[in-house]
C-alpha cells in the first residue's frame, strides 16, 4: 500500500496563522514569564521517565495552537498509526517501517496493533522474539564463558564492525550504558575504512579472547566488508603467530567459526564470507539502518550489559512509543518537539539544532542523532516525487556540557544565528563523587560534584532565555565602551529534558523520543524519512574512481579535470 499525496502544509490554516505571527515576531521571554507565573508548569510535560520543559522556547499559546493545527492537517497521528500498522510508508523502497515492532513486549496483552501482528505475510512479533531469544542465548554464552575462542579461552573483547546505523547506535548505547557493562568484558567499534581504525582498535588485543561481530544490514557495505576482511586477516595472522592455528584452510575456518559472528538481513552473503549462518542474527528490510539499534544490530551491547538490561532498554522505547500513540497532540512530547523544530526551521530561519547532554555517558548521542535526523529528513522531494514546498531538515550537532560551554556556547549566547538547543540531564549520577577539599571559595569541602555540574545545566538555559540587559551590565560597574560586548540578548530557545538516571530504559526513551520527533517533522514536510538515496552517488563514484587511485591511467583520464589533478597529485605524493 502506498501513501496518499502529502498535504501541502503551507496551504493549511495553521501555517497561514504562523506566517502572520512570524511577521515582525518579537519574542520576549522575560515579559512572558513575568506575565504568566504558570508558564513553566503549563509547558512542562511528562513522557515515561522524561520531564520535558518547553517553557523557554519562543512560543505562545497562539503559536502552539497553530502548530498543532498544522500537525492535524498533515495527519501526524494518522500516519503514525499507519506506520506502526505496517503500511508501506517508506514509499521509495516500497517497505513497511516497523522499528516500533522491535520493542513490542512478548506479553501481547493490550498491544496495538493486536497480536498476532502479521505484515506482508510475516508474523512480526514471532520473528522479533525468536531473534531476540537467539541473541540473548548467544550473549549468555559469551558472558558466562561457555562460548570460547579457538584455544578454549573465554571472550573478553567484542569488536563490532559496522558503519552508519550498524555502528553509531551500538557505540552510542554502549558508551551510555558503561556502568552496566559486565566486568571483564569490553566492546570496541570499528567503522571507518581508513585502515587506522581497525589497526588501532585491534593493536593491543589478544586474538584468542576476541570476538568480531560483522554488523551490516545489507552485508554489502564497502567499509564494513573491507574491515571484516582485515580483521579476519589479523585474526589468522595473530593466531598463527601464537601457534594457536596452523596454515590450513580447515584451521582458518575453525578460527572464523569461533571468532566471527554476523548481524544482517542477507544471510546468504554472511555464509559466503565464511560465517556459519547458525552464528548469524537476522533482521528485516522493514528496519531502517538508523532505526536498528534495538534490533540484533545491538548484539555487542546485549553481550556487554546482559539480557535484563537490554529488556529494560526495549521497554523504554516502548513506553515512548505508547506515549506517542496515545497522548493527545497538545501534550504529546515528541510531537510538540517536532512542531517546535518546524516553527524554528520554517518560520524563524533556524538552520541548526544543538543537542547538549549534561551526562558524559551520552557523549556519542549527538553523533548518533546526526544520522537519525539528517539521513531521515535531509530531503528535497516529497514522498510522491514532487519538490518540497518548505525547507527541510536541520543540522544537528552538539557535545556534552560542560565541554561545549568552553568551546561553542559563545555563538549560541551572543552570535547572530538562532540555534534551538536541547539540554539533557539526569538527577542521579552513576558516580556521585565529592570534592574533598573544595577550592577554598565557592566550592565547599565535600561539595557534590554532580550538583555543581547540574548548576551549569540550569544556568545555561536561564542565561540563554533571559540574557542580561545593558543596564544590568552597567550596574556591575562595567565601563561604557565595553557594555555592548557584555550584553546578552536572551530569547535564545532551549528545551530542558530531565530524567531520574541514565538507566537502560531512559536511554531507550531518549532514542524513541528523537525517532518520533523526526517522524513528526517528516510528516509535516511530506517527505519519506525512511529512505537515504542521497548516500548512493558517492558510493558509486568511489567504486568508479578506485581503479584511477590504484594507478589505472585510462580510469584516471576519464575523470573531470579537478578530480584527475587531485588524484595525480596524490599519486605523486604517495611514496
Ligand atoms: O550510509 C548509508 C547506509 O545505508 C545507512 O543508512 C546504513 O545505516 C549504513 O549505510 C550501513 O549499512 P549496512 O548496515 O547495510 O552496512
Structure characterization notes:
By secondary structure, the chain is of the alpha/beta class. Among the domains are: about 120-305, 3-Layer(aba) Sandwich (Rossmann fold), CATH 3.40.50; about 535-575. Helices cover about 45% and strands about 10% of the residues. It is built from 23 helices and 15 strands. It has helices at about 15-20, 30-35, 40, 60-75, 75-85, 125-145, 170-175, 195-200, 220-240, 250-260, 265-275, 300-305, 305-325, 335-345, 365-375, 410-415, 450-465, 470-475, 485, 505-525, 535-550, 555, 560-575; strands spanning about 45, 50-55, 120, 120-125, 155-160, 185-190, 210-215, 260-265, 280, 350-360, 395, 420-430, 435, 445-450, 495-500. The strands form four sheets. Strands 1-2-15-12-10-11 form a six-stranded mixed beta sheet, with helices on both faces. Strand 1 and strand 2 (about 50-55) form a beta hairpin. Helix 4 crosses helix 14 and helix 13 (about 305-325) runs parallel beside helix 20 (about 505-525). It is globular and about 80 Å long. The chain starts with 12 loop residues before the first helix and ends with a helix. The relative contact order is 0.14. The model has no long low-confidence stretch (mean pLDDT about 95). 6-O-phosphono-beta-D-fructofuranose binds near residues 164, 165, 290 and 375. One of its GO terms (molecular function) is glucose-6-phosphate isomerase activity. Belongs to the GPI family. Catalyzes the reversible isomerization of glucose-6-phosphate to fructose-6-phosphate. This is Glucose-6-phosphate isomerase. Its EC number is 5.3.1.9.
Amino acid at each position: 500500500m502506498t501513501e496518499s499525496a502529502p498535504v501541502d502544509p503551507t496551504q493549511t490554516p495553521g501555517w497561514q496563522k504562523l506566517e502572520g505571527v512570524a511577521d515582525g515576531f518579537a519574542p520576549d521571554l522575560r515579559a512572558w514569564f513575568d506575565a504568566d507565573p504558570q508558564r513553566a508548569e503549563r509547558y512542562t510535560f511528562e513522557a515515561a521517565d522524561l520531564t520535558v520543559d518547553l517553557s523557554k522556547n519562543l512560543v505562545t499559546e497562539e503559536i502552539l495552537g497553530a502548530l498543532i493545527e498544522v500537525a492535524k492537517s498533515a495527519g501526524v497521528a494518522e500516519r503514525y498509526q499507519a506506520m506502526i500498522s505496517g503500511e508501506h510508508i517508506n514509499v521509495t523502497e516500497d517497505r513497511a517501517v516497523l522499528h516500533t515492532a522491535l520493542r513490542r513486549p512478548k506479553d501481547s496483552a493490550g498491544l496495538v496493533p493486536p497480536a498476532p501482528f502479521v505484515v506482508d505475510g510475516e508474523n512480526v512479533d514471532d520473528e522479533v522474539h525468536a531473534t531476540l531469544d537467539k541473541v540473548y542465548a548467544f550473549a549468555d554464552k559469551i558472558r558466562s564463558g561457555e562460548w570460547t575462542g579457538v584455544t578454549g579461552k573465554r571472550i573478553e573483547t567484542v569488536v563490532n564492525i559496522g558503519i552508519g546505523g550498524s555502528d553509531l547506535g551500538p557505540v552510542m548505547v554502549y558508551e551510555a550504558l558503561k556502568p552496566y557493562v559486565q566486568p571483564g568484558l569490553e566492546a570496541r567499534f570499528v567503522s571507518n575504512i581508513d585502515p587506522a581504525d581497525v589497526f588501532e582498535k585491534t593493536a593491543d588485543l589478544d586474538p584468542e579472547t576476541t570476538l568480531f561481530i560483522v554488523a551490516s544490514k545489507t552485508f554489502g557495505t564497502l567499509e564494513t566488508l573491507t574491515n571484516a576482511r582485515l580483521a579476519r586477516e589479523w585474526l589468522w595472522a595473530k593466531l598463527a603467530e601464537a601457534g594457536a592455528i596452523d596454515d590450513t584452510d580447515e584451521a582458518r575456518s575453525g578460527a572464523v567459526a569461533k571468532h566471527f559472528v554476523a548481524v544482517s538481513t542477507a544471510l546468504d552473503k554472511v555464509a559466503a564470507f565464511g560465517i556459519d549462518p547458525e552464528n548469524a542474527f537476522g533482521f528485516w528490510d522493514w528496519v531502517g539502518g538508523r532505526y536498528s539499534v534495538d534490533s540484533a544490530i545491538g548484539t555487542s551491547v546485549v553481550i556487554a550489559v546482559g539480557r535484563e538490561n537490554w529488556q529494560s532498554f526495549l521497554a523504554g522505547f516502548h513506553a515512548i512509543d505508547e506515549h506517542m500513540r496515545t497522548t493527545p497532540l497538545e501534550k504529546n512530547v515528541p510531537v510538540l518537539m517536532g512542531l517546535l523544530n518546524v516553527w524554528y526551521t520554517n518560520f524563524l530561519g533556524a538552520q541548526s539544532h544543538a543537542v547538549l547532554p549534561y551526562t558524559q555517558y551520552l557523549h556519542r548521542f549527538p553523533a548518533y542523532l546526526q544520522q537519525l535526523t539528517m539521513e531521515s529528513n535531509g530531503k528535497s522531494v516529497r514522498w510522491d516525487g514532487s519538490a518540497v514546498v518548505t525547507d527541510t531538515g536541520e543540522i544537528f550537532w552538539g557535545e556534552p556540557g560542560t565541554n561545549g560551554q568552553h568551546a561553542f556556547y559563545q555563538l549560541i549566547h551572543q552570535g547572530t544565528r538562532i540555534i534551538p538547543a536541547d539540554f539533557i540531564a539526569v538527577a542521579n549520577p552513576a558516580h556521585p563523587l565529592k570534592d574533598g577539599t573544595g577550592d577554598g571559595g565557592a566550592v565547599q569541602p565535600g561539595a557534590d560534584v554532580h550538583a555543581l555540574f547540574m548548576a551549569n545545566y540550569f544556568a545555561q538555559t536561564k542565561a540563554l532565555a533571559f540574557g542580561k540587559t545593558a543596564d544590568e551590565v552597567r550596574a556591575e560597574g562595567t565601563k561604557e565602551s565595553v557594555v555592548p560586548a557584555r550584553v546578552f540578548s536572551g530569547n535564545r530557545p532551549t528545551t530542558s529534558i530531565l530524567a531520574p538516571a541514565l538507566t537502560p530504559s531512559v536511554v531507550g526513551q531518549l532514542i524513541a523520543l528523537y525517532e518520533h520527533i523526526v517522524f513528526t517533522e517528516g510528516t509535516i514536510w511530506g517527505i519519506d524519512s525512511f529512505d537515504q538515496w542521497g548516500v548512493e552517488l558517492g558510493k558509486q563514484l568511489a567504486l568508479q574512481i578506485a581503479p584511477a587511485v590504484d594507478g589505472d591511467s585510462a580510469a584516471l583520464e576519464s575523470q573531470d579535470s579537478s578530480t584527475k589533478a587531485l588524484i595525480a597529485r596524490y599519486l605523486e605524493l604517495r611514496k
